[in-house]
Amino acid sequence: MTWEYNKTVVSTFIHSGSQWSWAALDGGTGWKRIKEGAPDGCTNLTVLLNTASANGRKVHVDIDASGLITTAYMI
């Protein structure tokens, strides 16, 4: 797992299907999918990243070996 610190959420994308959410992060990180598996967890991360994007807040995100966002903190 790799932590990416002080990232700006540039954009988010959510598909109508279950657990299909993405976030674009600045600094060359690019688009990252939010890890699926727990519907509430996927929803909570999506809400957090949308809130950060809408309010100009930075986030710390944990990206696993397969490139999926598993954890995020809004700072």
TrEMBL record:
Lineage top rank: taxon: Bacteria
Protein name from the UniProt record: Uncharacterized protein
Organism, as annotated: Nocardioides taihuensis
